Amino acid sequence: MLHRYFSFGPLASLSWAVLLAAALGAGCAQKTVEPSTGSFALEIDPVVGLDDLVLNTATYTKADGQTFTVSKFKFLLSGLKLTKGDGTSYAVPDGYYLVDAADDKTFHIVIDQVPLGDYTGLSFLLGVDDAHNNGTFVSGALNHNNDLYWDWSKEYVFLKMAGSSAQAPAGRSLTFDIGGAGVVRTVTPAFKGLTLPVKMGHVPEIHMYAHVEGLFNSATPANNINFATTYSVESGDPKALTVADNYAANMFTVEHIHAN
Amino acid sequence: MLLSYDGTDVLNICTLTFAPDTSVRQSSGVMKSTLTLLGAGLLLSLTSCTHDADTVDPDGPVVAPTAYTLEVPSYFPTLPAMPADNPLTNEGVALGRQLFYEKALSVTNTVACASCHRQELAFTDGLAHAQGVNGGTTPRSSMSLANLAWEPKLTWDGSALGLENQARIPIENPVEMHQSLSAGVARLQATSTYPALFRKAFGSSTITEANTLKALAQFERTLISSNSRYDQYQRGNRTALSSYELQGLLLFATHPNGKQRGGNCADCHSGDLQTNHTFSNNGLDATFTDLGLGAVTGLATDNGKFRVPSLRNVALTAPYMHDGRFTTLEDVVSHYNEHVALNSPNLDPLIANATNDPLQRSRTLDLTATEKAQIVAFLRTLTDTTFTKDPRFSKPN
Fold it and tell me: Which residue of B59, B163, B261, B328 is 20 to 30 Å from B206, comparing CA positions?
């Protein structure tokens, strides 16, 4: 069960240049981009309020006045779906994406082979669909080595937030590891009347914010997270459902769309 | 030959336009192989080829090195890309192995990399503090070497990005090998053997610092450990671990929440390589004598954080922690269970919040003596004697 990894001699770049030239020069008809599809990009910036998230060193205040810091903030997205004004939609197949506040390379996601058209809405899952939640993957966002997998229950952790709060009990930190049965949520951030124009020769971009405080704030006062009593939420904790409801409603906002 | 072409596994480029030609792999000259490729209908790279200065080398034409095939277990994470300017080659790896055991890289000709990274101890030295030249000792313990191709940051404090950068540190450190790499290179150049080995690996018999570091990095990337009993279990051999060890694995993997009991280990030592590749303060001290990551970043919020090491072969790598303070695995588990310095700045949040107390009030982990022993039993299944006896990694003749 070994797969082989090939590496190349010092002339590798030369060789690849030659191969590339071969591909281009020979026309490579089967790789021609289908004229009926295009691409779009998602830029997802972790923030608190209006500020870019700064890990470890910045202290933030949530709606009820409790304060917190963030040492870890990462989550999985899947099941992206674009909708048009006429009610039709396009579901992105097999797309699983990891966003990690510690790695800004993960903030930018490009999705290809999208049917051309003007889209007026977006939805996605925060987490992993049930069909793949017990999957075995060694690469990509669902790689078990991405620090978002519970080995004991064979499930993905959909979102991890860690940090500190002066309001947590003495000596306790903030650890929110959200996942498990019934926790996956569909997120439909408001498009605010904007349009995503997918067309040939352009890569329009949806610029979204991922608000850390969205985990803790709710329009329903009983669902606000009080760090004095709720500072550690792990697998199987009923509070995971509350946090998931909160972030589904409050975490993502569409800031603007670049037509590019 | 320079090219091992394996179709779409490597690069999804229009395979129809270039049929893999096994004769390319066998051809011996740069020009010949390039012409073979040109024969496939290409004109792009002729000028690059003619820049090969070694075609006028008085020792005759340079033979390009051959690609090294690294075998990676299917359940391991995908291998990160190699540095574009340092692909693995058989000649480079063989040279790196030679250099790893080469004492001429130390000022006194007495210490090699292998002095503190002994294969039979999973490339550690059995000491709390490594011993360098002239009786010097390091403040930190030698790290085990295995599966380093997956590690983005090396050393206990993450100060080295990539193995090429890491290799210079112990060579030049006054309490380790204490010799500038340029002086080491001059020594290698003066030998009767190394110029030819460098020429085979890198195309030039003029030895450089960069090529010395590249060769060492290549050898280290081949140090894959994947045949412990735990690996055999991961590959599907359900009898590779005893039920007692499996209890330990379950505890190792589980974060306790008051209902499920757990040892809280895999919160950081996660995945098949037993590391999440981060830096963490695991509560050794309330005040720090060694700032770890904080000394590198200058951030107070990083003080006391050290690399989360892989636990491969951990039963062979005593003593433990960055300063070697714990002699046994039992000591280590007892630390996490009942001796964490709870007032330590920047203590890992998941350590601060982990307890098996059903009411979640206890400040300590509260494992039973049996549970602690089960975790230790599991840790011992991570020993890979295939790795520690692999002749490809031993001192070359």
Answer: B163
Are B285 and B162 part of one and the same domain? no
User: Does B217 share its domain with B278?
Assistant: no
Look at A236 and B82 and tell me if their CB atoms are within 8 Å.
no
Read off the pTM: 0.83
What are the percentages of helix, strand and coil residues in chain A, rounded to 5? 20, 40, 40
A22/B254 touch (CB, cutoff 8 Å), yes or no: no
Regarding whether B95 and B13 lie in a shared domain, the answer is: no
Is any Cβ of chain B less than 8 angstroms from the Cβ of A81? no
Does residue B16 sit in helix, strand or coil?
helix
Is B217 among the domain residues? Answer: yes
pLDDT tens digits, one per residue of B205-261 = 999 999 999 999 999 999 999 999 999 999 999 999 999 999 999 999 999 988 899
Domain CATH number, residue B211? 1.10.760.10
In a domain, B391, yes or no: no
Tokens of A185: 């949520």
Q: Which residues of B touch A171 (CB under 8 A)?
A: 342-343, 352, 363
The angle formed by the CA atoms of residues A253, A254 and A258, to the nearest 5 degrees, is 160
Structure-token pair, residue B130: 């490594």
For residue B79, is it within any domain?
no
Among residues B193, B28, B122, the alpha carbon closest in space to that of B385 is found at: B122
B292 and B165 co-located in one domain: no
Q: In the block, which residue shows the tokens 């051309």? A: A116
What single letter denotes the amino acid at residue A54? V
What is the H or E stretch that residue B186 is in? helix B181-189
Q: Do residues B25 and B164 both lie within one domain?
A: no
- Number of domains within chain B: 3
B7 has pLDDT over 70: no
The residue range of the domain holding B141 is: 90-225
